[in-house]
Design brief:
It is built from 10 helices and 11 strands. The protein has helices at residues 6-15, 18-25, 29-43, 59-83, 99-116, 168-174, 198-201, 217-225, 270-285, 287-291; strands spanning 48-51, 54-57, 91-97, 120-126, 140-145, 153-166, 186-190, 209-214, 231-234, 245-246, 253-262. This is Transcriptional regulator, LysR family.
């Protein structure tokens, strides 16, 4: 098997396009295409059908896929097992964190960790995508989720609360003049585009209009602060930024949980263990901020 080119084959098989595969693997589409064609030349078969819609596996590609995936898992397991033998508080730890934690919560914590352990280097990926620890996309991940079903070691730190927030100026302009069930109010939306999403239907304001639909939590927060409408936001954000007020008459409710995840083969790796324990201790100390809105947000 042409080991060096197998990752390019798997990336295209999983994404269906050269550009998406390049983003996943960290290269450019020309490199992906060159390695793909080289693999096809080596095996003497066509592995993908190419069309304007993207790339799809041929029967030969379908036959290769499970073999390539098994080889990938074997290589990952070997690397993880060797890394797990490391007993020194030195080296690189790959950490995946969601955007809100990168902006508000973790910078001072990571700075203190780096001061305490100067020989440990952090390779940080900031993404709202769930990076796959079982495929070695990260060594440690801070994840916000209701449940974790991955085949990894998971530590649930705490469940956080959310509320409906808007800017003071928006509430002054719109709240008192609202109609029944939120007529005249506006949601800054999130998630998939729907005519009336379930979360609007089940909210205290089911007849408020969905003014925007965004997929980045930080952009949602800034539009809410800018007076564009109201949205469900984590209460912890009210301790980090000004300009958020809890919408009168609404409740603070439990939402997802904050998890720390790591690959099982890295549990005994000193540098990974040090980072996980440090993050767990520091984040648990912040738990009250994740449960209660700031006093100014409740005025």
């Amino acid at each position: 098997m042409d080991w060096a080119r197998i990752p390019y084959f798997l990336a295209v098989a999983r994404t269906g396009s050269l550009r998406a595969a390049a983003e996943t693997i960290g290269g450019n589409h020309a490199t992906v295409d060159r390695n793909l064609r080289g693999l096809e030349t080596t095996y003497g078969v066509r592995l993908f059908d190419r069309s304007t819609a993207g790339l799809s596996l041929t029967s030969a590609g379908e036959a290769l896929l499970p073999v390539a995936e098994e080889a990938e898992q074997s290589m990952i397991a070997a690397r993880m097992r060797l890394q797990g033998l490391d007993r020194e508080a030195a080296g690189t730890v790959r950490l995946s964190i969601p955007t809100p934690f990168a902006v508000h919560t973790l910078p001072p914590i990571l700075s203190r960790f780096c001061n305490d352990y100067p020989e440990i280097q952090l390779d940080v990926s900031v993404t709202n995508r769930f990076e796959d620890i079982s495929r070695a996309e990260a060594d440690v991940s801070v994840r916000v989720a209701f449940q974790v079903d991955d085949d990894v070691v998971g530590r649930k730190l705490f469940q956080y609360n959310t509320g409906i927030f808007a800017s003071p100026s928006y509430l002054e302009r719109h709240f008192e003049a609202r109609g029944p069930k939120g007529d005249g109010l506006h949601w800054v939306g999130w998630g998939d585009v729907e005519a009336v999403p379930d979360w609007v239907k089940n909210s205290p304001f089911p007849r408020a209009s969905l003014r925007h639909n965004l997929r980045d939590p930080m952009l949602i927060k800034e539009l809410v602060r800018g007076g564009q409408g109201m949205s469900y936001l984590p209460v912890s954000w009210t301790h980090e930024v000004d300009g958020l007020r809890q919408v009168p008459g609404t409740d603070i409710t439990p939402n997802r949980s904050v998890w720390l995840l790591l690959h099982s083969d890295l549990r005994r790796t000193t540098r990974v263990r040090l980072l996980v324990d440090y993050l767990a201790r520091e984040l648990k100390a912040l738990k009250p901020k994740f449960l209660h809105a700031s006093r100014s947000a409740r005025l």
